[in-house]
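Sequence, structure tokens reproduced for absentees:
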Amino acid sequence: MKQSPIPDDGASTSQRSSVPGDSPGTLTIDQLLLESRAGLERVHASDLEREMAAGALVVDTRPADQRDRDGDLPGAVVIDRNVLEWRLDPSSPHRLPMADDPVRRIVIVCNEGYSSSLAAHTLQRLGLTHATDLIGGFQAWAALRRP
């Protein structure tokens, strides 16, 4: 990251505008996405059924309107994105019963494979070391099934 020089005009930090990514410790969303994906063994849509057959927990985090519009993902558990960490963290009193094994493979699915990468990274930080996501999300999976 590049750092901006400190101006000598006496302006305080709060008076200066900053561009995301210019301040130490800040990232752009693209940088955060790359950082999140670096630790993931992402799943291709063509491999999703194999992952399920091997015991992976597949979690669909798409909002209800997207599921209504595009259809369900067979075999997936639907968990709203805003409660995902509480439902899957094995230490959470609000976890789902199937979330009691921190080494279970978890594949997060969103609409196009962006928010799922961020979510999977967060789950890994909670100790769910085999959490990952689906490349291209539901749309990539659905495209394989179109005639």
Observations:
- The first strand starts at residue 57 and ends at 60.
- Confidence is low (pLDDT under 50) at residues 1-18.
- The CA atoms of residues 108 and 133 lie 4 Å apart.
- The first helix runs from residue 29 to 38.
